[in-house]
Amino acid sequence: MTYSVEFTLQAEEDLARLDKTVAQNIANKIDWLSQNIKSIIPAPLKGKFKGKFKLRVGDWRIVYSIEHSSQIITVFAVRHRSEVYKT
Question: Which residues contact 73 (CB under 8 A, 6 or more apart)?
Fold first, then answer.
């Protein structure tokens, strides 16, 4: 079953700043995540990102959360790995 995906304003701004090819690769990975969320083990984050998960797309990271009861994935940020955890 496919989960719906919601983007925060920050995530939308992050995606808008990216090169079109990179943004398309990330969009494809988010789509894949929404279709396969039940069959993967999400990578949990710690510290100020506790309760959120990360998804790798090359050198880029997608920070998201999952609400299984309403079947929603919320994307909080899409950043390069060198800066994602500094925000």
Answer: 3, 4, 5, 6, 30, 33, 34, 37, 64, 65, 66, 67
Number of domains forming the structure of the chain: 1
- For the stretch 22-71, pLDDT in tens is 999 999 999 999 999 999 999 999 988 999 999 999 999 999 999 999 99
pTM listed for this prediction: 0.92
30, 36 contact by CB (below 8 A): no
Beta bridge partners of 67: 72
Can you give the CATH number for the domain in which 61 is found? 3.30.2310.20
